[in-house]
Model the fold of this input.
Amino acid sequence: MALTAHPAFSAGAKAVAPLLPGMIPFGMIAGIAAIDAGLSPSAALAMSVVIFAGSAQLVAAQLMSVDTLSLVVILTALVINLRFTMYSASIAPHFQGLNWRWRWPMAYLLTDQAYALSITRYTLDPQAPAKHLYYLGTALPMWLTWVGACAAGIFLGAGVPASWSLDFTIPLSFLVLLIPSIIDRATLAAAVTGGIVAVAAAGLPYNLGLFLAAASGIGAGLLVEALQPPKTVPMLTNSPTGED
Amino acid sequence: MSSSTAWLIILAIGIGTFALRLSFIQLLGRASPPAYLQRALRFVPAAVMAALVLPALVNVNGAIDLSLGNERLLAGALAAFVAWRTRQVLLTLAVGMAALWLLQAYG
Done:
């Protein structure tokens, strides 16, 4: 493909390369979690292709494995993915002049990492040629690695005995996402409140407690922030190294 | 959960996620998200991830177990420490799993 031979595409691919190995365990766990939730291998693979967002996939699989109302699964996953609207707004001015045949696939490939790498590049060099190819250079290797890692997890997950407690990798991977998201008092308040409310409300049917916990946590964060305005408001990041 | 329900959930999340990603790219930067949403979004990862982690470590068979006999809580606490100090994904997973296996074998 001529597209992948373009120097802007190679530059993007070179920038994303160090992030790819970190995605592999996450992708595999997402695959294992989908199998654990009782999905067929084809549905589990469809999940990573159709949704293509690590934390949302892990959360959806986790919720599907316990008795959860379908609407709660869908809304929780979409709340987690709301951050994409911020990336979408931030990167949109750089995609001007492209028709929908470019913009739609590029939107589908939008991830934390592709966004972060591309926007950094565009900010450093606003007049850079072929911005969309740089973006695709970061986004396409992410997609291949993610879907490949999920497929490996699906393959592996079907054959691992329950005594290995491999399901424990799922809360551990949430932990890996949680720790870097706590960056100040307000985010700490959000985490502590969300965690405690979730434990207390665990008995609610259909996992509605998760919703209550998320809403309480966000409320607590906003409250602490309002009481104690931080000097800087850092850009939202959801993942430490590689997911989504 | 039936397999057709699972497929519908996957499809609904997929379409919704694509719509969120496309939103402002489709508008070509003519609009941006409202300020209150941007403020609230900052707390989503911390609130949701904590709400997922803590019950998985603390609730055992439907009851809250904060004792030292709760292997998942101990292994999770150790993994949280490793994640906080190192920010290493693989190391966190390895330490957490190794701790759980050791506690289950010798605890």
Observations:
- Chain A touches chain B through 100 residues (CB under 8 Å).
